[in-house]
Amino acid sequence: MQHKLVVSDPESGKVEYEYAHLTVKLGQDWRGGNEGLRHLREVPEIYELVLDCAEIGPPGLRYLRDGPRLRGLVFKNTRLTDDGLRELRCVRGLELLRFRENTVSDAGIACLEAPELMWLIVEQESRITGRGLSVVKSMPRLLWLQLPRSRVDGPSLRSLSGLSELRFIDLSDTPIDDSALAHLPPLPKLDRLDLSGTRVQGPGIKHLVRQRELKELSLDGTGIDDTAVRELERLRSLIVLSLRGTQVSPKAARRLASRGLRTILIDEHVIRSDPAFGTRPR
After folding, report:
1. DSSP state, 204?
2. How many domains does the chain have?
3. What angle do CA 165, 171, 174 make, to 5 degrees?
């Protein structure tokens, strides 16, 4: 299946990265097993290979080492193990790695040698801790980091230092708290941060002021209340703020909107700030 991938600058709209690509999906009806993967060697380049089959395990991944140029790899319902991830060490040029419905641990993620990686997405609960997160130090091109329901803690966030291309971080439902945010280094292109379901209460928000390009922040289901509004007001670049399931009142949210936020989501309310009509609930 042919697709076209486009990455553009959120401000100017200028296209930074664009190409047509081939996606190959091996689903539950795949009957080739591990040995069938050897036929991928006949394909010169695949953008995204989706492995959605319980019959595929570490033996099959070995065929990827000297197979086609592979830009993206998605695991779903495979017999993925730490040993299997070790097979990916020799897969060069990998830009996207996505885990869906597969358990990932520190031992497996630490095996990765993917300096070209731009998207690291772990969608389900994982056993990844700060030790596993340290692998991103070797991924200078990383744009997108998604580790919800992982065991990442505050000190481990220092591993993100130097990732000058990083634009989105998802740490929802992790043990991250206010003190942890002090360890998040300034990231020059970070424009989206998801801290939903974390232990953030409010005082740590002051550390986000260092993220000068932060435009979208989600704090759904956290302990944030009206006392945090003062710190949120200091995030001058913020455009969209999600506070659903928090103790922030509509009155406090309207106060935030009056300071320039375009959209604030709070439970069943959507508060928008419009230069022509002022602040209004929707």
Report:
1. G
2. 2
3. 155
Asked if residue 198 lies in contact with residue 174, where contact means CB atoms within 8 angstroms, the answer is yes
275 and 183 in a common domain: yes
Does residue 146 lie within any of the structural domains? no
pTM, entire model: 0.84
Neighbours of 251 (CB within 10 A): 9
Give per-residue pLDDT as tens, 100-140: 877 788 888 887 878 899 999 998 888 899 998 999 999 99
Supply the CATH number for residue 107's domain.
3.80.10.10
- C-alpha 256/C-alpha 271 separation (Å) is 10
Rounded-to-integer distance, Cα 182 and Cα 155, Å = 9
Residues 111 and 181 in one domain: no
Q: What is the pLDDT of residue 9?
A: 57
Helix, strand, coil in percent for the chain, rounding step 5:
25, 30, 45
Q: Determine the longest span between alpha carbons in the chain, in angstroms.
A: 64
Whether 20 is covered by a domain: the verdict is: yes
Tell me the C-alpha distance between 24 and 35, whole Å.
Answer: 16
